[in-house]
Amino acid sequence: MADTDEPMVVDGGSGHACEWEGRWNHIKKFLERSGPFTHPDFEPSTEALSGIRNIHVVDMDTIDVSNLNRQFLFRPKDVGRPKADVAADFINSRIPGCCVVPHFKKIQDLDETFYRQFHIIVCGLDSVVARRWMNGMLLSLLVYEDGVLDPGSIIPLIDGGTEGFKGNARVIFPGMTACIDCTLELYPPQINFPMCTIASMPRLPEHCIEYVWMLLWPKESPFGAGVALDGDDPEHIQWVYQRSLERAAEFNITGVTYRLSQGVVKRIIPAVASTNAVIAGKLQNERFENCSACSQIPMDLHFAPSSKLQDVLDYLTTSASLQMKSPAITATVEGKNKTLYLQSVASIEQRTRPNLSKTLKELGLTGGQELAVADVTTPQTMLFRLCFTS
Ligand SMILES: [Zn+2]
């Protein structure tokens, strides 16, 4: 789904009433009067008002000048300040009775005691990984009694995103309706180009742009030594665009544009191509009954005893329904908890790397064995059951 840059907003329920005469006059005009273009069945009412007063906003970004055209709570004087702080100040001073608490943090820096306090969570995140993390967090808060979901433990999630003229929004009742991971396959796959293609055999406009920003930028330092490429700086993108055009001309490649250059540099996640059609058709997302995130069923992994740990790792990262990023795999072998592979800590990666070329049998794993897998796509460790095929 798409890049939004909008902070995530969370509702903490209603506070005390705060009324004065004529407070709603303008809003009533907007909500209660029908107009020349309204549907004949339209019945005006104030039901659209949410009445939400207590809001927590979490955002890790600071305000960039390029945000000002669309992020309307921010003014030129706010550039450089945390988005969460400025957004909270703006609402608090404009709407008496509303209390917004800012958190200048990553969503992953807050734990389940924080998220449990809310009635609803609204996400405007800019990556699939962050969406999956929040989805996993809300799933981890669900309470099942004898396999039956306690509806009181459900915190609805509203997820949305836009890019250009496209956008989408969906409501998720964790544990009840399709979750983010149920429909993971609808996201376009992340494209990473092999370095040899970028360096010597470009075939696509994207290859030329990758070449310029990954290899030429650090080599030529066009804006001074050590100046990092800023995807929101038009001069930087213009430089990348011009040099990419030159590279593309060399290889008779067409299609390099300014917009594409920025898209590649910023790794902008494109909108799901079918989103507009899906929304227009009011098609419901179907739950995936074996969804690894929300089904409560440990997923089976089918491998031969002679398969290598690398094969398991490849499956976890490339399977369309899992798409993990850097899974850490642990198992209990002969009564001991053993880390089979862990990528994120250099020393452990080095120590466990030899395991990747060992077979599952050599690692002491047995059929029916549970494998615990941790990944950035979920706050919880996921359990898999190893099923040996012969
Ligand atoms: Zn699911």
From TrEMBL:
Keywords: ATP-binding, Ligase, Nucleotide-binding, Ubl conjugation pathway. GO terms for biological process: protein neddylation; protein sumoylation. Its EC number is 6.2.1.64. Residues 301-389 form the E2 binding domain. It comes from the Eukaryota. The active site is at 196 (glycyl thioester intermediate). Belongs to the ubiquitin-activating E1 family. UBA3 subfamily. This is NEDD8-activating enzyme E1 catalytic subunit. It comes from Echeneis naucrates (Live sharksucker). The gene is uba3.
